[in-house]
Design brief:
heterodimer, A: 4 helices, B: about 475 residues, mainly alpha, globular
Chain lengths: ~120, ~475
């Protein structure tokens, strides 16, 4: 993602985020960044309510976890009812299918598999 | 609290809001960042915060004394004291148990029995990083590269949460000048930061974590019962895993710091494109390799004291660099392999200078395989395991019992990342800063949803947390 090493110098000088300056850089940068992050957070909350609820379940037991679990479970149930979780579930199922694909009978989960087949 | 988790995301959003709200007062902003950093570090173990506080305060006092000392001999003495104290902290927490074990084994072999008490000391996360940071700060103050910093600035430099637990090793000369004034955000930097965080999350959550569970861990768990093909791809898989894990941490650290207004130096530069091992160390963990060069290799004499001494200096630097990673003979051997090969490269380059030109792709292929060989020692839990792995690799059993289409694709993706345009991220950020915020937010959410869908159950800690 960065340049420098081809020219032979130790490339610690400079940052991988040095861009060519532009006028737009100074146009309400904090508002633009914050709005981007808020929109992303809201869309994630809409599209991954189940993930939020699972996160609350994994929190160490205590008053914070207890206060969060009920509303987040209710939110997750709401998103499921309105099928907002469908894209995330579909993506997950595709990924799980890719994980199950095999060339032959390889067993990555087995402790040791080479000794279970006949040596050539 | 790990970077690519919801808990950290919420923590970061809060820190982001508070620090920018306090931007009118640079001191209050830095105090808020320091408190947040200590909270972040204390989430591992609150006792670590006390160690960090004591280390920063001690180094602050020493730097003031160095700057105030008139005689150079006194300055040097104070730097030496600081180096000994800092390395003493590192030695106590990281190496005491290891050296006592070796002493115990030696005494036992000499017939003195087991008399040495064995220690089990809890290793504070990131101790190697902030110790090296402190050493470079003291040396830089003594050599007048930077003026001594205020207590707040130095403590924040050492505690700043984006780099605290796994680097990059951000030197005082990089960050302290940035602490002197309240930072400003710009759209281009913010766009690059968001892209780096997303890219880092993809590398860590999807590539590194999946490869760890599906390919690397099974290969290294029981190498005696895996075929040579499994072990070969297990080693390639680890090369991709450690790159995608560690560079992801660096990318996210750089992105997070940037969203708070601070710039970190780059730490990775497509390392598997390197055509020699020397080139590799200009691209891999750049903050460590440049630290070792400036504060170890050059003080040892560098290349100024003849050919043999240069080779010895290279070898010693890399062995100590290996030991920096942990108290284990596997790390020493990893460092020795790198140091030895660097010395051979240097010797060969002099021998054939101007007579033989090796095509770049051959250099890349050889260098990659030397690095992969080193990773086997780096990843194996012990020396016996590493040797068993190498033995299995050479057994000539080429059946596949481990490599799945997905793990093969991820290895290919991890290597293909090295063929991306070197300024690809910057070019995308230069376009993205013109887009409206809702579009950027929507694309970010889509990216994170995709990453979330591909995550394994539970994301393992970053590899470099243990160092």
């Amino acid at each position: 993602m960065t340049i420098g090493a081809e020219r032979g110098e130790i490339a610690e000088i400079g940052s991988p985020v040095n861009l060519v300056p532009a006028q737009v850089d100074r146009r309400a940068p904090w508002r633009w960044t914050t709005a981007s992050m808020v929109v992303a957070a809201l869309l994630l909350a809409l599209g991954n309510g189940t993930g939020l609820s699972e996160w609350a379940d994994d929190l160490p037991p205590g008053p914070v976890a207890a206060a969060l679990q009920e509303p987040l479970h209710a939110w997750a149930a709401f998103t499921v009812r309105w099928h907002q979780d469908r894209p995330a579930r579909w993506l997950r199922s595709q990924w799980m299918q890719a994980r199950k694909a095999r060339f032959g009978n390889e067993q990555p989960d087995a402790a040791g598999a080479a000794d279970s087949t006949t040596a050539p | 609290m790990q970077f690519p988790t919801l808990s950290f995301g919420l923590f970061f959003l809060l820190v982001y809001a508070v620090t920018w709200a306090l931007n009118r007062s640079n001191d209050w902003r830095k105090i808020a960042l320091l408190m947040a950093s200590w909270f972040f570090y204390g989430a591992w173990d609150p006792r670590f915060v006390l160690l960090l506080f004591l280390s920063a305060s001690g180094n602050w006092l020493l730097a003031r004394a160095i700057a105030a000392a008139a005689a150079q001999a006194r300055q040097r003495g104070l730097v030496l004291l600081g180096v000994v104290l800092n390395l003493g902290v590192l030695a106590t927490f990281k190496y005491a148990g290891f050296f006592l074990e070796q002493l115990d084994a030696l005494l036992f072999s000499l017939g003195f029995g087991r008399d040495v008490p064995l220690l089990q000391i809890l290793l504070p996360v990131g101790v190697s990083f902030f110790t090296f940071q402190a050493v470079s700060y003291l040396v830089d103050v003594q050599q007048r590269r930077i003026p001594p910093a205020s207590w707040l600035d130095l403590t924040l430099l050492m505690s700043f949460f984006p780099h605290l637990v796994a680097g990059p090793i951000v030197r005082g000369s990089d960050l302290l000048p940035q602490f002197r004034t309240a930072p400003r955000l710009d759209r281009g930097a913010a766009a690059a930061a968001l892209l780096l965080i997303l890219w880092g999350a993809f590398k860590k959550v999807v590539v590194a974590s999946e490869l760890a569970t599906a390919l690397v861990d099974p290969a290294f768990r029981d190498p005696a019962h895996r075929s040579s093909l499994d072990l070969l791809f297990g080693a390639y898989g680890y090369a991709v895993q450690i790159y995608c894990d560690f560079s992801a941490y660096s990318d996210m650290a750089i992105g997070l710091a940037l969203l708070l207004g601070y710039r970190f130096p780059r730490n990775f530069d497509q390392p598997y494109r390197a055509a020699s091992l020397q080139d590799f160390w200009r691209r891999w963990h750049i903050s460590l390799s440049s630290w070792l060069r400036d504060y170890l290799y050059i003080p040892l004499g560098g290349s100024r004291k003849g050919r043999l001494r240069t080779m010895l200096n290279l070898f010693l630097t890399m062995v100590l660099g290996g030991l920096w990673h942990g108290a284990n003979w596997t790390f020493v051997l990893w460092g020795a392999l790198h140091g030895g090969w660097l010395a051979i490269e240097r010797g060969l380059a002099r021998l054939v200078a101007g007579r033989v030109t090796v095509p770049r792709w051959i250099g890349m292929l050889i260098t990659f395989h030397v690095v992969v060989l080193g990773w086997i020692f780096f990843r194996a839990p012990g020396l016996t395991d590493a040797l068993a792995y190498l033995h299995g690799l050479g057994a000539g059993d080429w059946r596949n019992t481990l490599v799945t289409p997905l793990s093969l694709a991820l290895v290919a993706i991890g290597l293909a990342m090295h063929a991306l345009p070197p300024r690809g991220l910057q070019q995308l950020a230069e376009r993205m800063r013109h887009w409206p915020a809702p579009l950027v937010g929507a694309l970010l959410a889509l990216g994170l949803l995709l990453i979330g869908a591909m995550r394994p159950e539970g994301v393992a800690p970053f590899i470099y947390y243990q160092f």
